[in-house]
Design brief:
The protein is of the alpha/beta class and 455 residues long. The chain has three domains: 5-133, Rossmann fold (3-Layer(aba) Sandwich), CATH 3.40.50.12160; 157-388, tm_1862 like domain (pyruvate-formate lyase- activating enzyme); 394-454, OB fold (Dihydrolipoamide Acetyltransferase, E2P), CATH 2.40.50. It is built from twelve helices and 21 strands. It has helices at residues 35-50, 74-90, 104-110, 123-133, 175-179, 187-199, 231-239, 260-264, 281-287, 293-306, 325-338, 365-388, and strands at residues 11-13, 26-32, 54-56, 64-69, 94-98, 116-117, 157-161, 163-164, 183-184, 204-208, 223-224, 227-228, 244-247, 271-273, 311-318, 342-347, 394-402, 408-412, 423-425, 437-445, 450-454. Helix 11 (325-338) packs parallel to helix 12. The two termini are 30 Å apart. [4Fe-4S] cluster 1 binds at residues 34, 70, 99. It is found in: Cytoplasm. Its cofactor is [4Fe-4S] cluster. Residues 1-24 are annotated as: Disordered.
Length: 455
């Protein structure tokens, strides 16, 4: 399932409502890329707010604009250049950061008028560039207060980044080149941030990193202040805070099994986002992936045996160099057997610097499209059948939005924001507020969404 443009989490813009006082310097933000980049944007804005800067929701009200870029795919690079160009045209004073910032010549070659270029998670360099372009002018009676975090997501859920970088060397990916090797945050620091978020009203914590199940490996699962840097321990600690805890980007290592009882016990949501990418062993070998499809099916069966209500989400690549019809058919057959609940699919494309570019036997664009269509047809049929089986069930849902007609857009525990489906309540929503967790009986199902009524 590919998201329509207006629902993509990589097109977030700062939506911060605050009153600007006279003389206060103001910064705008355009944040592209994955939720990990969104967290970087929030940290930058939080630091700037603490220094007395105002945050502008539009170009016109900003003294300068920061564009946090994505450089994962060539199409993402083009989108980032377009966003920089738009910011230059609308505002004229632009600072570039993020993954594409690792290639400053690429950016300045297209947009020589940008004020500065910094790489991913280079917070201090971004702040230095802002100070140079727009010197701070804090009002000591108004600004420089202890900073509450600036959030680019609705206040009832928040992304919680637990590490940077990645130790894998997948041939199609350049993330390790841009963001470096795995660098885990101390567990006590993550818990402190999570506690503050929950205290401020966050009802759902979305745990993200490039390789969440490898969390703590680089620091030898160090224990500090009573908290051990291991994904199982961290999940248990986070689950004690009383919020929904959703785990993203979990590689299917054997120790992931230890997380499933926590889901069965209700400590963390019964939801795993696992980037399988493919199922044929030869394709996985060409990808240099760490997983094996036959073992993965065994693990999926084991996970479901421990926690029958578990929701499994994954993404796949079709048309990878060398992918034969037989390899693609193996992927379809694997999907039939795996019966994943939520599935996304991408057509392979070259990325400058990726080792997969040099592989032989690239797949023709029209064949990639044809395979994508066949894959999504099967994935949609599986999704439709799984959702139809939920009709009549009673479940909890979190309210994301209530429109002018009183229709509530919600998500069940099986749905991550932006990337999965929704549950809609179109009657009896009086008194509901965004962020409420309600009990709903499902009375209708579609291909990706549910409809229900409060009970």
């Amino acid at each position: 399932m590919q998201n329509p443009p207006d629902l993509r989490p990589d097109l977030a813009r700062a939506r911060v409502s605050e009153t600007r006082h006279e003389g206060q310097p103001t910064i705008g933000m355009v944040s592209l890329g994955c939720p990990k980049a969104l967290v970087d944007s929030e940290r930058i804005l939080t630091r700037l707010r603490a220094e007395g800067y105002g945050i502008s929701p539009d170009y016109a009200g900003a003294d300068a604009v920061i564009v946090n870029t994505c450089g994962f795919l060539d199409s993402a690079k083009a989108e980032s250049l377009d966003a920089i160009g738009e910011a230059l045209a609308e505002n004229g004073r632009v600072i570039v950061t993020g993954c594409l910032g690792a290639e400053p010549d690429y950016i300045t070659g297209a947009h020589p008028k940008v004020l500065a270029v910094t790489g991913p998670h280079q917070y201090e360099q971004v702040l230095d560039a802002v100070h140079t372009a727009v010197p701070p002018a804090p009002d000591p009676f108004i600004d420089l207060l202890p900073a509450s975090g600036v959030s680019l997501t609705p206040r009832h859920y928040s992304y919680l980044k637990i590490s940077e970088g990645c130790n894998h060397k997948c041939r199609f990916c350049i993330i390790p080149d841009m963001r470096g090797r795995l660098a885990s945050r101390p567990a006590h620091a993550i818990l402190r941030e999570a506690e503050k978020l929950v205290d401020n009203g966050v009802k759902e914590l979305l745990v993200i990193s490039q390789d969440t199940s490898a969390y703590g490996v680089d620091i030898r699962h160090a224990e500090d202040r009573g908290h051990r840097a291991h994904i199982t321990d961290l999940a248990r600690d986070l689950g004690s805070l009383g919020a929904w805890v959703r785990l993203h980007y979990i590689y299917p290592y054997p120790h992931v099994r230890e997380l499933i009882p926590l889901m069965a016990d209700g400590l963390v949501l019964p939801y795993l986002d696992v980037p399988f990418q493919h199922a044929h062993p030869d394709t996985l070998k060409r990808m240099a992936r760490p997983a094996h499809a036959e073992k993965t099916l065994d693990r999926i069966a084991e996970w479901r045996g421990i926690c029958p209500d578990i929701t499994l989400r994954s993404t796949f690549i079709v048309g990878y160099p060398g992918e034969t019809e037989a390899e693609f058919q193996t992927l379809l057959d694997w999907l039939d057997e795996a019966q994943l609940d939520r599935v996304g699919c991408f057509q392979y494309e070259n990325v400058e610097g990726a080792r997969s570019n040099a592989l032989p036997d690239h797949v023709a664009p029209e064949l990639k499209q044809e395979r994508w269509d066949r894959f999504m047809e099967k994935a949609q049929a599986i999704s439709e059948a799984k959702l139809a089986a939920k009709v009549g069930r009673v479940m909890e849902a979190i309210v994301d939005d209530i429109d002018a007609d009183g229709i509530a857009t919600c998500r069940t525990k099986s749905d991550a924001p932006e990337i999965d489906g929704n549950l809609f309540i179109d009657d009896g929503t009086e008194g509901l507020a965004v962020g409420d967790i309600v009990t709903v009986e499902v009375d209708e199902a579609g291909e990706y969404d549910l409809w229900g009524r409060r009970v």
